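Ticket #4471: structure output looks truncated?

Reporter: J.K.
Steps to reproduce: submitted the chain below (256 residues) through the standard prediction queue, then opened the result file.
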Amino acid sequence: MTGDGETWALFNASPDLGRQIRATPALWPKQPLRQSPIGAVVLTNADVDHVAGLLSLRERHPFRLIALEPVHAALDANSVFDALDRTVVRRVVVRPGQAFEATPGVSVALVPVPGKAPLYAEGENPAVGVENGETAGAFLTVGATRLAYVPGCAALTPSSVEKLAQVDVVLFDGTLFVDDEMIRMGIGQKTGRRMGHLPITGAGGSLEALQALPAKRRIYVHINNTNPILIDGSPEHVIVERAGLEIAADGMEIGL
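Returned output as attached by the reporter:
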């Protein structure tokens, strides 16, 4: 995300972040070579698929690492993230709902949504669906446009729906099409809800609620490779598109 075309804020850092940067010239370092245009990384939770890419940013380039307190606590508990020199990378703890400037012209607030602790920190009886800051949605304002980025969400509560109804663009958790998708395919033993991800369809699924939102664009993101909506022309793909929602793809750009 950029507000001025010069300085960028990343939202989460997936394990393939290095590849993403190489494929995106706007994120390439400028002269001198250590001068990256990435000025901030905003984390919505501490899941591996959202933080592992931080280790691709350990080249002593200064940036702000911004998250709610529980997410920073998860990083602090794992010494591998000390590879991000704290004298260079500033760790910024924000309060729930506190607005901050992620990059010039882009205001963001991190708002807790139903979720859970990351898998590696779950323990024996993890609480799923709690709103304690371990999982958040990022609510952005750019000029007169408002955008919500919610890549992980265990349930759409009335308060969550109310906040999503106030934005122009919604990017929402599309991990699984049906709750037991991975179990059916024989590649997992947990439902989507158990993993902290609301399925697209089924009782209480996200599709119906998102379809009813007044947003100009509603886009599924964070899509698992088991999800058949990724296959053009599949029945599931058609269901989502007929409901008026989009399916994110690598390289998608959203102008605000």
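Triage note (M.O.): checked the attachment and the full token line is present. The helical segments are 17-22, 48-51, 69-76, 158-164, 181-184, 206-211, 235-242.
Status: closed, working as intended.
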